[in-house]
Amino acid sequence: VKNVILSIESSCDDTSIGLTEIETVRPIFYRKVSQELEHSAYGGVVPELASRLHIEIFPKLIKEVTILLKNDFNLKAIAVTTEPGLSVTLIEGVVVAKALSISYGVPLISVNHLVGHIYSTFIDEVELKNNFLTLLVSGGHTQLIKIENILYKDSFKVIGSSLDDSLGESFDKVAKMLNLGYPGGPIIEKLALNGNENRFNFSVPLSQSSKIAFSYSGLKNSVRLAIEKEKSLNSTLNEQFICDLSASFQKVATDHILQKIKKYLKNSHNKFEYLSIVGGVSANKYIREKISSFLKNKFNITTIYPKIEYCSDNALMIGRYGVELYKQKKFSELNEINIKTKSIF
Ligand code: KG4
Ligand code: ZN
C-alpha cells in the first residue's frame, strides 16, 4: 500500500485536488477545474462567483478521490493552501480539508501558495535544488527571489517585487482594454506571434533606476494611450494593430524583467547555477525563451520551469511542498489552521 498526501488548492479561480505518493513524490491523481470561462465575461475574477463555483465543484472531486482512497492508498495527511489568496475561496478549501481530516483521522498541513509555485518545478522530481533564483510571475505577484534552502521558507529572500500591478495582471488588463477576454496572458501571447514587436516604442519601466523592483502601471498606461490614439483615427481596431500592440507590450514587459535580473546578477556576490520561472506567466513561451537564452549567454545560468500544465494554480505543487512539510512534521491543529489573504512567505 502506498502512502499518499491529499492536496487541495482553491486560492483563486481554480478548484484542484491531487494525490502525491510520499516516497516517490509521484502524482497519483490530479484534477483541476478552471473557472476561466465563467469569469471571462467580467474581464477578471469575481470572488463571490469563484466562491460559489468552488462549492459546486469540490464535492465532485472529493467523491472521485475518496473512491480511489478506499482501495489502493494509505492517506497520511492533507495539505491545503491557506495563503495568500481570496478569503472567500481559501476558506472553502480549508473547510473541505478540515472535514476530510476529521473523517480520515489524519493531520492537516498548511501550505503557502507562493512556495507551492516554487515547488512546481519539482513535481514528480525527488531531488530538490538549493541556492537558486526564482522569478515568480503570476496574477498576483512579480518577484525575484533567492532560495537558499528550499526546505526552509525563512531562508527565502525577496530581491525585488512589483511596486504596482503584477506581470500577469498587466497581461490581463491589456487584454481587457482590447476586449479580448480573460485570462489575457495566453491570448496576448498568441496574438503577439503575428505582430511586429518593434512597432510601438514603449519605454522600459524603471530602466533608469538602480533599484531591483518591477512596475507595470506606466507601461499599461502607454498601451492605453496607444489604443485611444488608434481609436481616434479609426473607429475599429484592426487585427494587425492588436497583434503589433500585443507583441510590443510583451517585448517591453519582458525586457523590463531582463534588465532587472541583469542588474541584480552584475552586482551580486553570489553565483547561481539555476533560475526557475514559476507562476501562471511562466507558461509564456516567448518569455521562457527570451529569459533562458539571455541567462545562458550572459551568465551561464540554466533556466528551469514547470511543465506547462503545472504553471498555473494546481494542487500538485501544493502536494509536492506538502510532502516536504510532512517529512518535517509541520502539522496544523484543526482549530488553529487559518487563512491569510496576504503573505510574503
Ligand atoms: O499562477 P496563476 O495561475 O494564478 C495566480 O496565482 O495568480 O497566474 C495567473 C496569471 C494570469 O494573470 C494569466 O493571464 C497569466 O497568469 N498567464 C499568462 C500566460 N498564461 C497565464 N501570462 C502570459 N502568458 C501566458 N501564456
Ligand atoms: Zn498562483
Describe, in plain words, how this protein is organized in 3D.
This protein is of the alpha/beta class and 345 residues long. Helices cover 43% and strands 19% of the residues. It is built from ten helices and ten strands. Strand 9, helix 9 and strand 10 form a beta-alpha-beta unit. Helix 2 runs parallel beside helix 3 (87-104), helix 4 crosses helix 10 and helix 7 (217-233) packs antiparallel against helix 8. The mean pLDDT is 97. The structure holds 5'-O-[(R)-(carboxyoxy)(hydroxy)phosphoryl]adenosine and zinc ion.
Notable characteristics:
single chain, 345 residues, alpha/beta, 5-stranded mixed β-sheet, 10 helices, 10 strands, globular
Give the total of beta strands.
10
Neighbour order of strands in the largest sheet:
3-2-1-4-5
Mean pLDDT: 97
DSSP strand (E) fraction?
A: 15-25%
Distance between the first and last residues' Cα:
34 Å
**How is the quaternary structure best described?**
single chain
- What is the share of helical residues? 40-55%
User: Bound small molecules, which ones?
Assistant: 5'-O-[(R)-(carboxyoxy)(hydroxy)phosphoryl]adenosine, zinc ion
Secondary-structure element string = EEEHHEHEHEEEHHHHEHEH
Structural class: alpha/beta
Q: How many helices? A: 10
Shape: globular
- Which residue ranges are poorly predicted, with pLDDT under 50 across at least 5 consecutive positions? none
